[in-house]
Amino acid sequence: MSENKDLVLQTFRALVESADRKFARVRDVPAYGRVSQNHFFHKVFKAYTRLWKYQQENRGKLVQCGLKRWEIGEIASRIGQLYFGQYMRTSECRFLVEAYVFYEAILSRRYFEGSEASTKDLGVRSKELRFYARFLLVSVILNRTEMVKHLMDRFVALVDDCKSNFRETNFREWKLVVQEIVRFTKVDKGFSFRPMRYCATFDTHRASLPYVARFHAKRVLKFQDALLTSYHRNEVKFAEVTLDIYRMIQCLEWEPSGTFYQKHIFKPNENGGSIDHSGASGIIDMNLTADMTDPTIPPNPRKATLYRPSVTHVIAVMATICEELPPDSVVLVYLSAAGKAGHNNVSQMENSGGSSKYSKHKALSQTSQGQNSGTSESHNNGKKELGCYDNYMWFGPKGNSGSNNLYPGDLIPFTRKPLFLIIDSDNSHAFKVLHGAERGETAALFLSPLRPIFKNPSDVNSNNGSQFTFFLTAPLSAFCQMIGLFPSEADTDVYNEAENIIAVAFSEWEIILCSSTIMDLVWAQVISDPFLRRLILRFIFCRSVISYFCPPEESEQYLPLCLPNLPSSVAPTSEAVRSLVVQLAMHFDVADSFHFTET
Questions:
Q1: Name one Pfam family in it (predicted).
Q2: Could you give the CA distance from residue 347 to residue 168 in angstroms, rounded to a whole number?
Q3: Residues above pLDDT 70, as percent of the chain
Q4: 531-544, pLDDT tens digit by residue?
Q5: H/E/C letters for each residue in 250-314?
Q6: How far apart are CA 431 and CA 412, in angstroms?
Q7: Exposed site from 53, 141, 213, 509, fewest CB < 10 Å?
């Protein structure tokens, strides 16, 4: 009998080692590109499925051999981590939900809260800390607000407990993680009116739907791939997800509808009954998410998110995505970084206009690029590429190394494929030179303002994300932040009415755009896509609001740009657009903050 138990334990340990080896390999697989890596995923998932079933079938013998509850928790945590990694590679929400299911089961079954001996084991407590950090990230991305609050309380208490019980150990890194999540969750507090994900209930406009359905350009592009990256000093982040990237991720995903839309309420007990935590129970339904996915929505665009990348990494990922891009498809590229070395994105509020900045960039560039004058003027379809290497965005830490500079000219080779470029920088206008210098496909360009603008700049934390990105992902929230309004639950009806005002205007703008006979093909070929169409509408909103809010004589540095130009029928001065800004200003009683009479 003893030999049988030993054999069971040996088999279990062998399965753990085998699964861990496969996990290590799949963790190193690049998180971008369309080349299928499913064989890696299937192998490691099969290994963990086998391990999971084996510990269930032999649980009694394993417990008698000394199996600890935290060991089962660690296996489940690995499976959750595996699912989350697959979500980051594919953007399929079902993997994110699977990760949530496993993490929630670990929490509800208290796998890491076992015997007193395990609480005094630094290795076990470190595993528990990592579990909470990973579960927090999944809950944040899934917008499980109540769970995030619950996990934060537990996480803070656990870090404090570890500091008390392991005084000889430095928990500085974990204290920084606590600070990160607290800072991250505070930023959007009071600004969450509606989901940032594309929600059919709020983002599909019934009046304009027939016009969108009937619209047909000479060429229609599919949006299936995106590259998202930001690099700013001191930006708000949690783990390797910055606030701006988090907002863009949300903006480019579908919000599940129906019963899934009802926020999941955390319950410590399963099936309404009590749980026996005395043994090493390991029952987690590995198919529990079958009823938690929404088959009615299309797949999300695949997103490659890069955290503080080098310029060469950005270029390499862009090359991979463009090389593997399916026919008749467009890539969305979101680049957010400061315009020169050591220059924070929001310290732009302290600078003067854009022209002086350009001269500084040019002087810096001429110092390091003096030998490149011959390469900065090359012919493209009879046109010269002027200034493509004079200005840049900065992807790097403190210092002034040319290897950290991303020049407009660096993006030109990728214009052989259709690109939808969003440049969010205090030097974004330098990228205007891309228009007309493309190699084959005219790029759609959104260029951020050179400076943000707020009614009360002192009330806005300078590192709480980009104002331009905020407008593209949560337009009403960005509007309220700009005019100095901080919502409370008591004002819910006021803000819901404001959302309805915006929705009516967006519906009208969709009709105008889809009825236009002069819209540039660059926009016409992407406007059928719901995500890109919504970004276009929000750009129009952002540009119009700021055009009436900023001092007219300083509009050049405060206004975003789009190239090629959108139809004049949706320009800020058009009645259909101007009327929305007036309505919102009157609705919030802030009309005196806008310059309606001067325009």
A1: SCAI
A2: 40
A3: 81
A4: 999 999 999 999 99
A5: HHCCECCCHHHHCCCCCCCCCCCCCCCCCCCCCCCCCCHHHHCCCCCCCCCCEEEEEECCCHHHH
A6: 11
A7: 213
CA-only gyration radius of the chain, Å: 26
> Mean pLDDT, to the nearest integer, of 500-508?
96
pLDDT tens across 235-292, in order?
999 999 999 999 999 999 998 764 343 434 344 444 433 333 333 334 455 444 444 5
pTM: 0.87
Distances in Å between the Cα of 77 and the Cα atoms of 21, 110, 181, 341, 363 are 15, 12, 20, 40, 52
Contacts 24+ apart (CB under 8 A), 374-383: 375/409, 376/409, 380/412, 380/437, 380/438, 380/439, 383/436, 383/437
Token readout for 269 is 């007990």
Judged by average pLDDT, the poorest of 27-41, 366-380, 433-447, 516-530 is 366-380
Long-range own/partner contacts, residues 83-92 (CB < 8 A, 24 or more apart):
84/134, 84/137, 84/138, 85/26, 85/27, 85/31, 86/41, 88/31, 88/305, 89/29, 89/31, 89/32, 89/37, 90/302, 91/252, 91/253, 91/299, 91/300, 91/301, 91/302, 91/303, 92/299, 92/300
CB 567 within 8 A of CB 512: yes
pLDDT of residue 291: 44
SS3 (DSSP) at 229: strand
